[in-house]
Amino acid sequence: MSGVVQLASQVFHVNNFPHHLFSEVAESKIFLLHSTPKHALLQAASASSAADYYGQRVDAKTKQKRRRIAGIDQDELLDPTLLADPDSCFCEFKGVMIHHKVCDADPQAHNPLENQAPSQLANQTKTIGFPMILLHGFGASVFSWNRVMKPLAQVTGSKVLAFDRPAFGLTSRVNFLKQSSPSNQDTRPLNPYSMAFSVLATLGFIDLLAADKAILVGHSAGSIVAVNSYFEAPERVAALILVAPAILAPLSVCKVAKGNRLLKVEGNQLGRDDQIQEAQMMKRTANMLNSLYKKALSAILRSAFAVMLVRMIIDRFGIAAIRNAWHDSSQITDHVLYGYTKPLRTKGWDRALVEYTAAMLTDSTSESKLPLVKRLDEISCPVLIITGDNDRLVPSWNAERLSRAIPGSCFEVIKHCGHLPHEERVEEFLTIVEKFLQKVFSGPEKQGMQGAS
After folding, report:
1. SS3 219
2. CA dist 33 → 4, 8, 187 (Å)
3. Residue 89 forms beta bridges with which residues?
4. Distance CA 139, CA 353 (A)
5. Are 263 and 269 within 8 A, CB to CB?
6. Could you tell me whether strands 132-135 and 214-219 are parallel, antiparallel, or unpaired per DSSP bridges?
7. Do residues 350 and 308 lie in contact, with contact meaning Cβ atoms separated by under 8 Å?
8. Do residues 155 and 129 lie in contact, with contact meaning Cβ atoms separated by under 8 Å?
9. 38 CB-near residues (< 8 Å, 6+ apart)
């Protein structure tokens, strides 16, 4: 009985029960004879401990939820170099350590198409001779290309390089907004999150590969980098391959008879003079609004609110966006999810994503150039456009319209495929790319490719 009294004393003591009253009850034996039996006291003590434990668990879960973004622990973020793979490489470019990987052709590798007809095999034995640079899309990284890098190296007979653009993958995060100041815009370094930086980095990697030209393969937003790189140095680009290109295709404009002196724009007929006057007024208004918009946006993006918003968006929609990019999301493995969320373990990933967004939305360097959509008909190198028939992010009809805007471009649709043909339909993707390259660089149509429709 003394053990029961002792246990009860502890329970009541924990609950601030007056000790002298408990002693009186115990001494009069009322407690021992008529109060709670031993197993009930044990249950009471257990319940008290369980309540404390439950409270601790709730607090721990709340803290854990706050510290995880898209399932990735945010308590111990690492330097990108510590997350590198065995085949990862890093090089310094304008103050940024750029993560990249390189695959070379294996002369001993088995050719999966070696059993084809001799006439086809003759073309396939010819190497393309140009290296290839792979440019990932928004939110992706070198990981996105891991299933096609080696096969593409076999197709080209040369090196294939993929690199992480700043703000993505394992490329170092630079706090550009903090380092730069609006008062010294003439002397501050090039914004690593700008399109101009990505273009110069792309051309720099052509030099790194010791090549005069390279084939640029861009996926989604990476296609914008590829096309801009072409316009920056067309003599350095052997061909463009645009995969699910996130480039807004131009709307078709039909001209009516010359004598009418009218233009038909999206179904509306406007007099030429009225159209010019309206366009000038709209341009002045747009420039004024654009200036105000950029100032306001810059102030917002320099705040802590922007970082918090980015973290919230990635946490809530990041995994869903990955699944939505596939035609068949059941094919997405844990390995794929890990590859896409791994960069969330790097220091400063959230701030870098904010700065990338700011650079894309407030870029002033492109204002002196014609919009990309108005220069597409100037592209003269071979172009291949690949899209999935069930791309929910960049519709296939936009890719088809884009192919009509680029003279002589080839257009291919992969069935039962979403936004990631090079991940979801690897074999079909490689077959299309190989046939295109063989046709352009090794086939009989090599000289007349640009005249084809």
Report:
1. strand
2. 12, 14, 89
3. 100
4. 9
5. yes
6. parallel
7. no
8. no
9. 4, 7
Residues forming a β-bridge with 239: 215
Q: Report how far residue 324's alpha carbon sits from residue 304's, in angstroms, rounded to the nearest whole number.
A: 29
- Rounded to 5 degrees, φ, ψ at 29 are 65, 5
Structural Rg of the chain based on CA atoms: 31
Q: Where are the alpha helices (DSSP H) in 84-194?
A: 118-124, 149-156, 176-179
Residue 378's contacts (CB-CB under 8 Å, 6 or more residues apart) are 231
The tokens describing 130, both together, are 């140009």
Q: Contact, 426 vs 146, CB < 8 A?
A: no
**Closest by Cα among 426, 400, 412 to 326:** 426
Query: Which residues, other chains included, contact 193 with Cβ-Cβ below 8 Å and sequence gap of 6+?
Result: 166, 167, 176, 352, 355, 356, 358, 359, 360
Measure the CA dihedral 329/330/334/339, to 10°.
-30
Phi, psi of 80 (to 5 degrees): -55, -35
For the stretch 201-211, pLDDT in tens is 999 999 999 99
Alpha-carbon gap, residue 134 to 164, rounded angstroms:
10
* Polymer length of the chain: 453
Of residues 325 and 260, which shows the higher confidence score? 325
- Alpha carbons within 13 A on the beta-carbon side of 116: 11
How many angstroms separate the CA atoms of 67 and 45, rounded? Answer: 33
169, 337 Cβ separation under 8 angstroms: no
Q: Each residue of 384-418: pLDDT tens digit?
A: 999 999 999 999 999 999 999 999 999 999 999 99
What are the tens digits of pLDDT across the range 169-192? 999 999 886 665 555 555 668 899
Whole-model pTM: value is 0.74
* C-alpha torsion sign, points 252, 381, 203, 347: positive
**Closest by CA position to 6, among listed 24, 20, 26:** 26
**H helical segments located in 383-453:** 396-405, 421-424, 426-441
Q: CB of 148 within 8 A of CB of 424?
A: no
423 contacts 146 by C-beta, under 8 angstroms: no
Range list of β-strands (E), 171-223: 214-219
The β-bridge relationship of strands 132-135 and 96-103 is unpaired
Q: Give the pLDDT confidence of 201-253 residue by residue, as tens digits.
A: 999 999 999 999 999 999 999 999 999 999 999 999 999 999 999 999 987 64
Burial of 42 (0-12, 13-18, 19+ CB in 10 A): middle
Whole-number Å distance between alpha carbons of 174 and 94 = 11
